[in-house]
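Record passed on underneath.
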Amino acid sequence: MHPTENEPLPQAEHAEIRIVSATPAAARAVAEVIRRCFAGAEQRSYPVPGGGTRLHLTVDTETAAGPARTWLATSRPPTGTGPHTEEP
C-alpha cells in the first residue's frame, strides 16, 4: 500500500509508522523499541496477503515515553555544567 494524495496527514507533532514483517512477534519487537522513545503509540495490526503482519503506529514526536529521553534530548549537552563566569 502506497500513500495517496487523499490520505490525511497526522497532526504536526505526530508521525505514522508502518512496520511490515513475516511474523507478529517481529513487528511487536520493533514497535516496542519505538515506544521506548516516543509517547502516544496508537497501534493497529493487519494481516499481509501471503502471510506476515503489518503494524501501524501513531507516535507523538514531541513527547518522550516515560522517563526515557529522545535521542535529540540526550545528544544535547546538559545545561549548567560548563565553567562559571568567574572561572577561567
Notes: Residues 14-66 form one domain. The first helix runs from residue 24 to 37. The chain has two helices and three strands.
